[in-house]
Design brief:
The chain is an alpha/beta fold. It has helices at residues 36-43, 57-61, 92-107, 117-125, 134-137, 162-167, 223-239; strands spanning 11-15, 17-19, 30-32, 47-51, 66-69, 112-115, 129-131, 155-157, 181-184, 189-195, 200-205, 211-214.
């Protein structure tokens, strides 16, 4: 309406998951994503923008104020020993696009919030390594594929970390839907949360712009946990 000044919302890019194997509809390639990611961004005061696979990532990154890397499919092992494990591999075209988009956003020093697969991608792109299947590589670890909507496990946060300042020293239990995890975070990232069995649950950038990866799914936790985490991310995007 004329004369009304609408608040300016930061634009948060969210690359979608991609199915090239007809899992969603036979014979079709499909972009898809849980709506909870966009809803969490909206609730925090930003505008979500779905980003499909495309060639020119710079044209997209130049218009964004931040990047949310959501959960997704599996990274395929680069070493033997996982023949009995069923993987849902992320399509190579999708992984290539995500890596190029993350690189373009990083070059602009935009804030990044990375969730589950997104956290693993953030670490791999920094030169980190993965546990490709927790049960195979770490048989004494707990089950991290908690399917029930109310199943949770506790995490401990590193003191003086950005994540601890956002969530507090005792953030409460988190959900868990992964069988892969970060083994080493890579250059410029540090571990800031672990599960009781030692599995890495969060990493963040050492100085510089907002770069935070969490292994759990805050977008579906709801309540103060979601609001604080996405609120801090959107505030960083608005500040940028």
């Amino acid at each position: 309406m004329e004369g009304i000044l609408w608040p300016v919302r930061p634009l948060i890019g969210i690359p979608q998951c991609f199915d090239d194997r007809g899992r969603w509809r036979a014979g079709c390639e499909t972009d898809y994503l849980d709506a909870a990611y966009a809803q969490a961004v909206l609730a925090a005061g930003a505008a979500p923008v779905y980003v499909p696979i495309q060639v020119c990532v710079e044209a997209i990154s130049d218009r964004l104020d931040g990047l949310l890397l959501p959960g997704g499919d599996d990274f395929l092992p680069t070493r033997p020993g996982f023949e009995s494990v069923r993987f849902e591999p992320v399509p190579s075209i999708k992984r290539d696009f995500d890596e190029r988009l993350l690189a373009a956003v990083t070059a602009r020093e935009l804030p990044v919030l990375a969730i589950c697969y997104g956290m693993q991608l953030l670490s791999v792109c920094a030169g980190g390594t993965l546990h490709y299947d927790i049960a195979t590589e770490l048989p004494d670890a707990a089950n991290h594929q908690l399917r029930g909507p109310d199943e949770r496990h506790p995490v401990s946060l590193a003191a003086e970390s950005r994540l601890a300042r956002i969530l507090g020293a005792a953030p409460g239990p988190v959900n868990s839907r992964h069988h892969q995890s970060v083994a080493s975070p890579g250059a410029g990232l540090r571990v800031v949360a672990r599960a009781e069995d030692g599995i890495i649950e969060a990493v963040e950038g050492e100085g510089g712009p907002f770069r935070l990866g969490v292994q759990w799914h805050p977008e579906t936790l709801g309540g103060p946990h979601r609001d604080r985490l996405f609120g801090a991310f959107v505030a960083a995007c608005r500040g940028h």
